[in-house]
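Team,

Forwarding the record for the chain on the shared tracking sheet. I've put the sequence and predicted structure together so nobody has to dig through attachments.
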Amino acid sequence: MRPSTAVTIGVGATAAVIVAALVQGAGDNPLGTALSLSVPADYKKLIEDAGTTCPEVSPNLLAALLTQESGFNPKARSPVGAQGIAQFMPSTWETHGKDGNGDGTRDVWNPEDAIPAAAGYLCDIAKDVDKVPGNKQNNMLAAYNAGSGAVLKYGGVPPYKETQNYVRTITALANRPSGAGGKTVTTVQAATAIGVAKSMLGKPYSWGGGNANGPSTGICCSPNGRSGESINGFDCSGLTLYAYAKAGITLPRTAAQQYAASEPVKPGQVRPGDLVFYGSSAASIHHVAIYIGKGWMIDAPRPGTQVRYSPMDTMPDLFAVARPVSHDSKEI
């Protein structure tokens, strides 16, 4: 079940169109996490009902999965053919689709059918991988993304980077605290983070570099084989982590985890200090930057560069803008 492309902002939108839209105007309680994820009102009751289909599925988990799969876009269509709010492949819908609203049809594009079907499918694959060692929820989510066969073959979450990120991201979303300690950053904190990031302009990029204390030597190796072991500086998420640490906000280490720990921002409501994310899906986010206004951001782009100002359309796969949330961070 492959996630769709850039559905949080709009499927198929170009980076330039997305930027223009963005800058315009600019636990114990399962349902609690769903609400903290800004679930559209039309889908809250559906998620609450479908989230009790079996013990392995909760409203929290289902809401996190739908956020990950489509950003609650019922018209989402991925490059590989996945369809609807839950991103069913046609062959999977053929065997697991449901007539959730009782109108006599099974419509993958109708959330009233697709949301109950997603919960039912999760329950079915939970049974398929029930005997696999390890965390049962992680195995279930991995099977939703990569298929039960892959989980059975590898005896757990398969060694696919996309699937591993998929599991981490949904787990982080589903376990996000709500209520106290779950408030988005203030404008003062955002301004502090921007100021800190500006003070790092010119610092070299270091793969794996940067932490809450500032620039640091990194690790080996980037996908292109570049090492940060001898470079004192930042990678993209190291810079954002440091900037917000100085503002009193703890962020996770990777860009994908930072997206999971943030609240998506609607077009027209973007403000300086928000985080800008790039990737084809929430699980495959590969870059993060700090928005500073008028379509510009501060980022640590890639090996061989320095912390600098960049336009938001510097990469073609702008996925979403999100606002950091203040809560205790946990490694995932």
